[in-house]
């Protein structure tokens, strides 16, 4: 039984891989369709393998439910999933993201006015960004209560440092020649900031913003594990594990992955619009 | 050999005096005397013991009966094989100055509740009392309480869930005096459900070797419990020795042991069918969102304790 | 004449100018005892081996570098004042266009900073684009243009606000000879038409000789002026003047001056 | 070197802000406590005090300022309390004792390091695959990104239960979670690094008709070293986050995460704070270590001016 | 003679060579109907405005680019076969030394790849370093050398495995004129000593005239050969041959050829 299961899973994998290799090395490899098709086939292969293995190996659904069961749950629980999404992503993660981002920009611009501050903030910020900030979640829940405000605060702190460090580094990323050009025009601080340094900083800033999207989700959900109202993705995940409703847990994970990928994609898309001029974005 | 003598026990919380009986049995060699090789796995806020049991990561688990019966309805046939805890230590603790005196006063208040399978007794109680749990002036606003007492101290909640042996003590430790508080014991409200029973998988109980192993396990565990009741300070010390976090305080564990002893005192390990029925009735009365929908069959067995205690 | 010249007669007036950089490896004497007068309408080329201080001197004129000794004035002011008064346009070796702005946007940049009216901005952009032969490329981004076109755009940018002085640091260094010839011709025409004063750094002997009214030969370690050659060539200079005996003679003198200062490769 | 003063200044500012914040943050708790000790507090009932913000209450009760710094269970401990707690748990304990943060640090660190090794190995392999195989290039990246957006905290208990089901416990499941978080930055950085050689450098090898393997060992790999180190520094801190996250929801018995959890659960904020700071120091030490190795390596490779 | 020449007589033999790149903006005709023979020992310069296909043609010879039409052979083989046979050394415009290898390590790179014995590697490195005047710099890293020295190291790298053909794509483009003169002299000496066949791309007319036995003038859009000039200059060429009338005449012819093909900048 185990043998057949593994062999059929491997066969499936080989088949998916074969199709993808043909597509990727084929004549149409550069078309938009194939570019979407290849990762889709890859993902689909993984899902079918999952389904197959779970069913053939008779894994208990309270350990790992098959994808079809998750899909069914997802479809049946849309209103709950939506409410959780609003609580966790919209209220918690997005608010925190925006606050953290604005604060980071503000501090970056302030710090940037003084070389002294910049030299102080970059290492400290870099250090803070490397910290396991997930650990502050219980503290913030204690301070700000169980509702979304504490989640937003955790998220704000988590996204603050990567965005700050990237923005400060970005604001410094102008060539001596570009700065000298501004000096030959006798340009003051603000024109230099708006016309040279902010545009030049954009690739860095977006790098920080992209990193921050995934952190925002982690932060909001982690914080819910330490106290929440009776709604929210972290709440639902934790409660559903307790109720052995693993299909619901996975449905929430799917929501998180969809939301995260969408946010990330959105950022990447905006980045493409804003930094169209950067060599990495040019086609 | 391993199959006949190895036992892995999944606790439902981190190491504390709530589980003193098992640590004592291990430490005092009671398990060894029975020829058993016991491993105790501490739990945590997001480890579901029934899941561990289902996955084969443990042979037996401790669980609250509502959670175990719910798992049974979900298709995981767990069976209560012993019930060392006679009475429930669960209660709601409220600030007196919020004006709460009776259950009716809960309306319009915010109450902290543990979830993760521990919400069932509360939901049944509110449903029996006719109080909605979805907020508003007429109902209570439910807060998912982390496993600590901060919401009360911060006054984010008017009442929170506490165990007599743990969280209640923490509230007092924070400097609050008992006369600032009002407490509602589930036991007094007639909605008590059985806590900390020992459960195994039904299919395993068809295996005589396993049954024999469980008999010895329960016998040794109960010996541990009775020893702990008699020697609370030593028992607390043993628990501390087994606490790998090193963060537990001796005073708190001694106090906890004292409170725990009150809960285990009435039990020799055998489940009283009346207690079981009271638990089931409470859960079935759960109104619109019942924890279980039908009288469970075969959810407990006296076979193990009968053999262990004669 | 040199001795009697004064600050006010000259667009640029440098006396015993000295500049030492403090670096990790100790001080670098980039300019030593530099004396130079540039009159209005002069086209002055600076030539010399790498590291002889050409760029540094140009930057001193522009107020981008602070001399550590001697005096220098631009239009009778300190270079810093002249910079704030927007007395000059500066062209760097690389075009250095901002990639996030179109060609038009790049040329508009100094105009925006200096607060020109919108309408005037557009008009000036159109005019200088015409001047450097780039009409029609206003909406393109820098990377969509060839190197030569980018360099012309950067010249247009320096011309847009009509400063009297144009300082150019190896503006054609990265271009091929043909394009370079062409731009040299255009630059001469522009200079003739506008009567600007031009300071021009180059590595190329023919370029220096072809363009200048005055060739300043410099030498490194410490950076100093070793020769100043006033060109006898007429203002009108067709490209094939470069095959004339006069031209070759000047080129020879420049090359000798260079080789003298160029002890090592 | 010249950054020392600015860094100290910034740290000083943060400390100052922290110290000032202690008063309003702890004011309500302090007032409740003071009242029980018969000190006069305005206003004089807890319910009435709820109407005031921490700052408002502090302004009304300056006599309580001192007390806010010495609470047993503060909402915000004062810096010296954290320092004392850390001193007690780091310096004054035998490092094999469970009360020692060094012991817990080692528990978390061992999972971190194992996870980091697994994650980095996996990341490098994936990156090589992506750079050398078109099909992998097109199919893996979107899923690698998606994998990082799913809440690891939800997966952590499942991973631990599933691995427990096949008899693997303790270090390894935590390491798996660490690896899960650390492989991604390594993939991203290494793909960039392996692709960093320019056309000319690649063409040079073609003029020698070098084999793909030679191209990898002599060009792509050395060229990617600076990127590798950048990734390693992100990866190791992601790894530490992973180990802590793995310890949080599962109540893992020891480690920084377990200390944070237990501190939260038993109302011992100092335990939580000390664990948090110890984790911070560990992260700094790890990143600092890789910075040193990076500098040493790049200097030996001649890729960084001395 | 041209018509009778055969594949085997020539080191490089191109007939009606065509190469079209497919780009997003449509096809670019980089080479059209290119015919060229290079005999053993020739020093052939390619000159022409930017984009005329000099690099592309050199890359076709090197087998780095696949022509879309016509035929080309190198040493009687296809360019790909010649590449596999390691028939040539290639020098790029920028030195392109690997920064993580010392100068010695960089020169050793092709030797390692081609599987020379360790002892021979060391011996060859020493020899070519001598040849390009860099003895003693073996242990230095590229960034510790000046641009000119780096470029010489990259030439040494191409010489190390002693291919008969040397292909150089604007090797001195980034250097200043004096350094360039010096390297030109050295290159001529090297060529005279080793009798290699050299293909050399340049933008500089004097450089092309000074170095070559044959100057190929190219023109863009589509890239094609407009003139092939056999130089009458002797093999022995002191630097001041550049002031001779003969030299100037050839330079004129080249410039005219260039200007003809150079309709737009
Ligand atoms: N900011 C600086 N700090 C330290 N040293 C400098 C600085 N700028 C220039 N130098 C040094 O001063 C000397 C003169 O440099 P400068 O750039 O003026 O030379 P240049 O003649 O323009 O050379 P090139 O032809 O290479 O551009 C050089 O030795 C250079 O290394
Ligand atoms: N890989 C490529 N893909 C598309 N077009 C190319 C490619 N390589 C070269 N071209 C185009 O082919 C033409 C000839 O290019 P090539 O590089 O051979 O010119 P060149 O004479 O070497 O110019 P330069 O003097 O600027 O180096 C140009 O129009 C160029 O844009
Ligand atoms: C996995 C799991 N976690 C927590 C509880 C609830 N609970 C049971 S005993 C106890 C003691 C607290 O001191 C708590 C919180 C549970 N039943 N199962
Ligand atoms: Mg210069
Ligand atoms: Mg080229």
TrEMBL record, chain A:
<keyword id="KW-1133">Transmembrane helix</keyword>
<feature type="transmembrane region" description="Helical">
    <location>
        <begin position="89"/>
        <end position="109"/>
    </location>
</feature>
<keyword id="KW-0813">Transport</keyword>
<keyword id="KW-1003">Cell membrane</keyword>
<keyword id="KW-0472">Membrane</keyword>
<dbReference type="InterPro" id="IPR000515">
    <property type="entry name" value="MetI-like"/>
</dbReference>
<feature type="domain" description="ABC transmembrane type-1">
    <location>
        <begin position="86"/>
        <end position="267"/>
    </location>
</feature>
<feature type="transmembrane region" description="Helical">
    <location>
        <begin position="204"/>
        <end position="228"/>
    </location>
</feature>
<feature type="transmembrane region" description="Helical">
    <location>
        <begin position="248"/>
        <end position="270"/>
    </location>
</feature>
<protein>
    <submittedName>
        <fullName>NitT/TauT family transport system permease protein</fullName>
    </submittedName>
</protein>
<keyword id="KW-0812">Transmembrane</keyword>
<dbReference type="GO" id="GO:0055085">
    <property type="term" value="P:transmembrane transport"/>
</dbReference>
<dbReference type="InterPro" id="IPR035906">
    <property type="entry name" value="MetI-like_sf"/>
</dbReference>
<feature type="transmembrane region" description="Helical">
    <location>
        <begin position="121"/>
        <end position="140"/>
    </location>
</feature>
<feature type="transmembrane region" description="Helical">
    <location>
        <begin position="6"/>
        <end position="24"/>
    </location>
</feature>
TrEMBL record, chains C, E:
<dbReference type="InterPro" id="IPR003593">
    <property type="entry name" value="AAA+_ATPase"/>
</dbReference>
<keyword id="KW-0067">ATP-binding</keyword>
<comment type="similarity">
    <text>Belongs to the ABC transporter superfamily.</text>
</comment>
<feature type="domain" description="ABC transporter">
    <location>
        <begin position="14"/>
        <end position="245"/>
    </location>
</feature>
<keyword id="KW-0813">Transport</keyword>
<dbReference type="GO" id="GO:0016887">
    <property type="term" value="F:ATP hydrolysis activity"/>
</dbReference>
<dbReference type="InterPro" id="IPR003439">
    <property type="entry name" value="ABC_transporter-like_ATP-bd"/>
</dbReference>
<dbReference type="GO" id="GO:0005524">
    <property type="term" value="F:ATP binding"/>
</dbReference>
<protein>
    <submittedName>
        <fullName>NitT/TauT family transport system ATP-binding protein</fullName>
    </submittedName>
</protein>
<keyword id="KW-0547">Nucleotide-binding</keyword>
<dbReference type="Pfam" id="PF00005">
    <property type="entry name" value="ABC_tran"/>
</dbReference>
<dbReference type="InterPro" id="IPR050166">
    <property type="entry name" value="ABC_transporter_ATP-bind"/>
</dbReference>
<dbReference type="InterPro" id="IPR027417">
    <property type="entry name" value="P-loop_NTPase"/>
</dbReference>
<dbReference type="InterPro" id="IPR017871">
    <property type="entry name" value="ABC_transporter-like_CS"/>
</dbReference>
UniProtKB/TrEMBL annotation, chain D:
<feature type="domain" description="ABC transmembrane type-1">
    <location>
        <begin position="101"/>
        <end position="294"/>
    </location>
</feature>
<feature type="transmembrane region" description="Helical">
    <location>
        <begin position="177"/>
        <end position="194"/>
    </location>
</feature>
<feature type="transmembrane region" description="Helical">
    <location>
        <begin position="152"/>
        <end position="171"/>
    </location>
</feature>
<keyword id="KW-0472">Membrane</keyword>
<keyword id="KW-1003">Cell membrane</keyword>
<comment type="similarity">
    <text>Belongs to the binding-protein-dependent transport system permease family.</text>
</comment>
<feature type="transmembrane region" description="Helical">
    <location>
        <begin position="106"/>
        <end position="132"/>
    </location>
</feature>
<keyword id="KW-0812">Transmembrane</keyword>
<keyword id="KW-0813">Transport</keyword>
<dbReference type="GO" id="GO:0005886">
    <property type="term" value="C:plasma membrane"/>
</dbReference>
<dbReference type="InterPro" id="IPR000515">
    <property type="entry name" value="MetI-like"/>
</dbReference>
<feature type="transmembrane region" description="Helical">
    <location>
        <begin position="270"/>
        <end position="293"/>
    </location>
</feature>
<dbReference type="GO" id="GO:0055085">
    <property type="term" value="P:transmembrane transport"/>
</dbReference>
<dbReference type="InterPro" id="IPR035906">
    <property type="entry name" value="MetI-like_sf"/>
</dbReference>
<keyword id="KW-1133">Transmembrane helix</keyword>
């Amino acid at each position: 039984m185990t043998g057949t299961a593994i062999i059929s899973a491997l066969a499936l994998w080989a088949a998916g891989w074969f199709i993808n290799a043909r597509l990727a090395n084929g004549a149409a490899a550069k078309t938009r369709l194939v570019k979407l098709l290849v990762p889709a086939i890859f993902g689909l292969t993984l899902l079918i393998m999952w389904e197959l293995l779970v069913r053939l190996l008779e894994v208990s659904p309270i350990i790992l439910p098959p994808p079809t069961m998750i899909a069914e749950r997802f479809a049946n629980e849309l209103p709950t999933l939506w409410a959780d999404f609003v609580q966790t992503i919209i209220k918690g993660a997005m608010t925190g993201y925006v606050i953290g981002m604005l604060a980071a920009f503000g501090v970056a611009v302030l710090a940037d006015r003084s070389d002294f501050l910049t030299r102080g903030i970059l290492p400290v910020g870099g250090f803070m960004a490397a910290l396991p900030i997930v650990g502050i979640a219980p503290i913030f829940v204690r301070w700000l209560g169980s509702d979304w405000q504490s989640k937003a605060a955790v998220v704000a702190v988590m996204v603050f440092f990567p965005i700050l460090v990237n923005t400060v580094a970005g604001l410094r990323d102008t060539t001596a020649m570009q700065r000298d050009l501004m000096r030959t025009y006798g340009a003051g601080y603000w024109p230099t900031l708006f016309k040279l340094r902010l545009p030049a900083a954009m690739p860095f800033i977006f790098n920080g913003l992209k990193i921050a999207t995934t952190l925002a989700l982690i932060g909001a959900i982690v914080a819910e594990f330490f106290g929440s109202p009776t709604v929210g993705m972290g709440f639902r995940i934790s409660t559903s594990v307790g109720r052995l409703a693993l299909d619901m847990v996975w449905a929430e994970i799917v929501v998180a992955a969809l939301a995260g990928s969408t946010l990330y994609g959105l950022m990447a898309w905006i980045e493409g619009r804003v930094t169209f001029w950067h060599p990495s974005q040019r086609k | 050999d391993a199959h006949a003598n190895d036992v892995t026990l999944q606790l439902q919380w981190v190491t504390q005096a709530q589980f003193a009986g098992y640590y004592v049995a291990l430490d005092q060699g009671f398990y060894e005397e029975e020829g058993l090789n016991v491993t105790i796995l501490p739990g945590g806020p997001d480890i579901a013991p029934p899941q561990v049991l289902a996955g084969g990561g443990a042979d037996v688990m401790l669980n609250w009966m509502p959670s175990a019966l719910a798992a049974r309805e979900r298709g995981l046939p767990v069976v209560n094989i012993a019930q060392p805890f006679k009475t429930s230590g669960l209660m709601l603790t409220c600030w007196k100055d919020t004006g709460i005196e009776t259950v009716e006063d809960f309306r319009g208040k915010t109450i902290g509740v543990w979830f993760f399978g521990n919400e069932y007794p509360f939901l049944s109680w509110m449903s029996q009392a006719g109080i909605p749990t979805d907020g508003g002036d007429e109902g209570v606003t439910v807060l998912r309480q982390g496993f600590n007492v901060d919401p009360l101290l911060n006054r984010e909640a008017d009442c929170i869930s506490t165990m007599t042996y743990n969280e209640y003590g923490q509230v007092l430790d924070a400097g609050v005096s008992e006369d600032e508080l009002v407490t509602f014991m589930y036991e007094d409200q007639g909605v008590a459900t059985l806590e900390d029973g020992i459960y195994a998988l039904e299919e395993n109980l068809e295996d005589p070797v396993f049954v024999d192993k469980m008999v010895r396990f329960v016998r040794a565990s109960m010996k541990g419990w009775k020893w702990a009741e008699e020697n609370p300070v030593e028992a607390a010390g043993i628990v501390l020795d087994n606490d790998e976090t090193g963060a537990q305080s001796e005073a708190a564990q001694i106090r906890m042991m004292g409170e725990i002893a009150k809960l285990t005192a009435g039990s020799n390990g055998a489940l009283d069918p009346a207690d079981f029925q009271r638990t089931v009735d409470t859960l079935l009365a759960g109104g619109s969102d019942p924890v279980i929908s039908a009288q469970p069959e075969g959810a407990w067995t006296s076979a193990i304790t009968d053999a262990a205690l004669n | 004449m040199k001795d009697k010249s004064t600050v006010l007669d000259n667009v640029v007036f440098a006396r015993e100018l000295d500049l030492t950089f403090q670096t990790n490896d100790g001080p670098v004497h980039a300019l030593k005892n530099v004396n130079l007068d540039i009159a209005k309408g002069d086209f002055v080329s600076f030539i010399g081996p790498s590291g002889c201080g050409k760029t540094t001197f140009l930057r001193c004129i522009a107020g981008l570098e602070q001399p550590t000794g001697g005096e220098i004035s631009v239009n009778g002011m300190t270079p810093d004042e002249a910079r704030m008064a927007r007395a000059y346009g500066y062209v760097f070796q690389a075009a250095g266009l901002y990639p996030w702005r179109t060609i038009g946007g790049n040329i508009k940049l100094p105009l925006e900073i200096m607060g020109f009216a919108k309408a005037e901005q557009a008009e000036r952009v159109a005019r200088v684009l015409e001047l450097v032969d780039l009409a029609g490329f206003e909406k393109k981004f820098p990377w969509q243009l060839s190197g030569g076109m980018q360099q012309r755009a950067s010249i247009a940018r320096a011309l847009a606000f009509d400063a009297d002085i144009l300082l150019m640091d190896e503006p054609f260094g990265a271009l091929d000879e043909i394009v370079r010839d062409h731009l040299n011709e255009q630059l001469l025409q522009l200079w003739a038409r506008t009567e600007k004063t031009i300071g021009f750094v180059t590595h190329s002997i023919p370029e220096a000789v072809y363009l200048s009214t005055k060739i300043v030969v410099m030498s490194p370690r410490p950076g100093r002026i070793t020769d100043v050659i006033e060109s006898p060539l007429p203002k009108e200079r067709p490209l094939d003047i470069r095959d004339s005996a006069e031209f070759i003679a000047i080129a020879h003198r420049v090359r000798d001056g260079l080789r003298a200062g160029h002890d090592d490769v | 070197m010249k950054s020392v003063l600015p860094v100290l200044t910034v740290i000083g500012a943060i400390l100052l802000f922290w110290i000032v914040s202690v008063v309003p943050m702890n004011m309500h708790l302090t007032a409740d406590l003071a009242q029980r000790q018969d000190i006069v507090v305005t206003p004089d009932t807890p319910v009435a005090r709820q109407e005031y913000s921490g700052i408002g209450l502090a302004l009304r009760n300056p006599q309580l300022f001192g007390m806010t710094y010495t609470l047993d269970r503060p909402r915000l401990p004062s810096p010296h309390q954290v320092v004392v707690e850390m001193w007690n748990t780091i310096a004054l304990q035998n490092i094999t004792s469970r009360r020692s943060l060094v012991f817990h640090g080692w528990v978390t660190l061992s999972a971190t390091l194992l996870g980091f090794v697994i994650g980095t190995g996996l990341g490098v392999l994936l990156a090589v695959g992506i750079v050398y195989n078109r099909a992998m290039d097109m199919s893996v990246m979107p899923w690698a990104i998606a994998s990082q957006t799913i809440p690891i905290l939800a997966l952590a208990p499942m991973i631990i239960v599933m691995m427990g089901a096949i008899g693997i416990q303790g270090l390894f499941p935590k390491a798996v979670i660490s690896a899960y978080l650390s492989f991604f930055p390594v993939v991203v950085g290494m793909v960039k690094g392996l692709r960093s050689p320019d056309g000319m450098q690649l063409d040079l090898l073609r003029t020698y008709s070098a084999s793909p393997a030679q191209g990898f060992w002599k060009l792509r790999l050395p060229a990617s070293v600076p990127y590798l180190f950048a990734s390693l520094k992100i990866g190791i801190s992601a790894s530490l986050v992973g180990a802590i996250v793995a310890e949080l929801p599962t109540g893992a018995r020891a480690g920084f995460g377990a200390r944070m959890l237990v501190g939260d659960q038993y109302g011992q904020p100092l335990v939580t704070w000390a664990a948090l700071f110890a984790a911070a120091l560990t992260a700094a030490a790890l990143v600092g270590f890789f910075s040193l190795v990076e500098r040493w390596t790049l200097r030996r490779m001649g890729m960084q001016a001395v």
